[in-house]
Amino acid sequence: MTNAREVDLHPSQWRKFLQYIEVPTDPGAPNTPWLNRDLIPMPKERRTYKIWSYFIYWCISGLCISGYAAGSTLLAYGLDAQQAIVTLVIGGLIIGVLCVACGWMGERHHIGFTVACRFSWGMRGAYFPVMVRAFVTIFWDGLQAYWGGQAVAVTIGAVIPGFAHMKQTLAGGILLTKDFIGIIIYYIFFVAIMRIPPERLQKPFIVSSVMFGGTLIGLLAWAVSNTHSGGPLFRDQVSSAVHGGTGWAMLFGITAVLGGWGGGTIGQSDWTRYANRPYAPTLSQLITAPFCIIVCATIGIIVTSCAQEIVGSLIWEPFLLLATLQDYYDDSPRVRAAIFFAGFGCVCAQLGISIVLNSVSAGMDLSGVVPRYINIRRGAYMVAFLGLASNPWQYLSNASTFLNVISSFGIFFAPFSGILLADYFVVRRCMIKLGDCYIGDKRSIYWYHNGIHWRAPLAWVLGVFPTMPGLIMTTRDVTTWNVWVRIFHIAFFVGLLISFVAFSVICWVSPPGNVGIGVLYHEESSFQAEGEPQTDSEEKKELV
User: Fold this and answer.
1) What pLDDT digit, counting tens, does each position of 353-410 carry?
2) Helix, coil or strand: residue 188
3) At what angle do helices 333-353 and 202-227 cross, to 10 degrees?
4) Beta strand 169-170 with 175-176: parallel, antiparallel or unpaired?
5) What is the pTM of this model?
């Protein structure tokens, strides 16, 4: 009798535990297997981002350490400094146009990438692009945290010179102990900031932009005033492009720029859904995005070039340059004061970019997988933990590895973008039935065949396949050069265009039966969540 009673109690206790760990709800937004308050079309009271908010958003996205170091990738292709800047201008302008296109569904229907995948891939098929993006974001987050930890170490070292000169290492000599301490402190700040909901992050973003903007201005003033020129990278002539002519090298560079911001472009709707009115993000996407990307990377090239003439080393990461300057000026108190504020600016930049490009988007992705128990905040914490566990100091230990990682990301993201843009603009003409994006059975017009829209995976494979041989060959031998490797180095263009055209043609030949149904934009009355919580009496009936 006692054993039977204990067995009967376990399901009830387990159910109470599951209810306890469910994410918070809002009126009209219950927790179901397909939605929670972070996945629904953004309600009016939470749409708080104005035009200036998106200006600050792109100051975060463009003025960042990865943007500062983008020149290293371009020069690795054999471009000189002037050609690299031209490449940045072209790449930045293309990013601006892509951001407007990818963010349109967020601006109009107030849904993010996670939910948008459901009408393109099917309710179950959407798990694939969501999980791929989340997986890739883990490594991005680890990269940003590693750099953020190094920036924290530099900032602390400016106050405590003994800390700056610590030589102890971990992970077989790859990771400095002081950097690991910096990573832990960085994550403490990160956890605190992620307590703030995305719709209230404007003020922290302002602080981050101002601090790192000051760091860039200070480094540029120091560099130019000491050399009175642009440095050797602007004076010395490059012998020739690494592979092919200058035109090919510039094309490869443009693709690398697009790949570096690929996650930001495909995830634009994750942030444009917070717009308080139509077209609020558009001006910043078209103007501020390319401007900040171009300015930050150009400053990075100039400062790195001048620093090479001053200290004798080519140092692309600003926090490593700051650490070098502290040694170069023999721990001068004035220099340490400047390094403290500049280092803190780098820390702020890393916190901002991690939240903007990684945490919110990946948190929403994981929320789409298990909506009852994961929201944006919990998902962001999970990504942060997994990013640290990925050992970023291992895969970022040399520049060539970084270049390959950045290029590889574009292989997967570009076809996702092509399919989403083709489906939304060409096939559906911006018309979506929002309610059906949250129904996980045959009642939804986006259920297709067992929840999977076969046209999307087919178009994705067609977009990815031409670039995979080059990726494999490059991974095995970086010196390999043939037509497949060349296609790999323009993977973003190839993947985007092929998947866009392939999906459009497939839907023209075999039209899905749910086209032309829904609304052109989200109104408060056009969406009503299904699956309201059951009453106690209804739950008891099901248990019986």
Assistant:
1) 988 888 888 888 888 899 999 999 999 999 999 988 888 887 766 545 555 555 566 6
2) helix
3) 140
4) antiparallel
5) 0.87
